[in-house]
Amino acid sequence: MVSKTGNKRATWLVLVMVVLLLVGVLPVPAAYAKKEVQITYWHGWGGDEKKVVEDIVAKFNAEHPNIEVVPVTVFGSYDKLLTAIAAGTAPDVTSSVWWYQVPDLASRGALTDLTSFARSSGVKASDYVRPVWESWHYKGKLYAMGSIANYSMIAYNKDLFKQAGLDPEKAPKTVAELDSYASKLWQVEGNRILRVGYYPSDLNTASQMFRGKIFDGQKVTVTSPQVIQAANWMRSYYDKYGYQAIQAFIASQGNYASAANPFLSGQMAMQDNWGEWIVNFKKWYAPNLNYGRFPYPTVDGSPGFANWGSSVWVLPTGSKHPKEAWEFIRWISSKEGSKLLALGITNASVRLDLNASPEFLKAMPTLSAALPLLREGRLSVYPAFPGVDEFLQKLGNIMDTVYSGQTTAEKALADLQKQY
Fold first, then answer.
1. In a domain, 131, yes or no
2. What pTM did the predictor assign?
3. Residue 285 domain-assigned?
4. How do residues 10-27 score in pLDDT, each as one tens digit?
């Protein structure tokens, strides 16, 4: 039996403990505690991929009891990010940035230098595909990390190759062979294109096929002989098959991610820039498609290359929780995080060892063709410098005047070069 004095003492002790809990002297039981740090994460995935990203973030949150990452889908965040930084409302971390935009953002003071974070975390350059790792730097400092990437090559329809009398297991290795193959695959009726054999779609890629560059790492070089040669090669397709006819063909096609994509529908025998997602696209939109991929060939027959690209994870200037945001970046670019995201949305990894693993090759058989290129670093070099978005827009506009015959490649590119 408890005395009245004992009841009073017990009541007093309960009151003291409640006060101590309220002022934070005693720890709050885990079941009722809020996480210490909440970080906002902007990303650019929607649809089914959004759900994959959210599930991966939930796994990170479960493994990090003191950090809660809140994912928010934000499309086209480049300008939005600059506006948010200026307004002091930037997210803690974002991956809605493309790798080639890193120099521009870093030069504007919009990104946090990650070099010391990476060093203290034991991040090693050798774990990543070399050209990809290099792209995360600006003026010798690390400003971004990645998790996934696309390694794209030219896709071709093996059945159409057979119909045209071409060996479906022998892909072209030179620009001349590519032209020869393409000429046998085009089908034109009057001014109407029934089927495209191939046409080059990008001057940056074409320039490297001709062993040149539109940006040499220091300056714009669009008037180099190799770039001029590549531009005239691209125009030759429009001269041969008609600018208006090609534009009409393009306009008649449906959404890229649909069965109306001309490559998936059999109306285009070879098409640029197909990465690992072709596995899912075949499954979803063209189950009977018999396809292959081959590296971009070169004018001199030297080993071909793949295009590549990826979004990157960065800490915007003004991130309120840089230490915790870095931990998320470190985790998502680690073997665990990269594997989850890559397999979740059928993209390759930035980590060479994962791409070569049986699990990845089973999920994305097309990766096998890319592995030698990744090991040897045979990936295209994309122009990356402050102001690159404006430059690429100008380049696209002036090249359209070349394709349409309004001007020559020499004059158009010389006019552009004067601006840089």
1. yes
2. 0.86
3. yes
4. 433 333 333 333 333 333
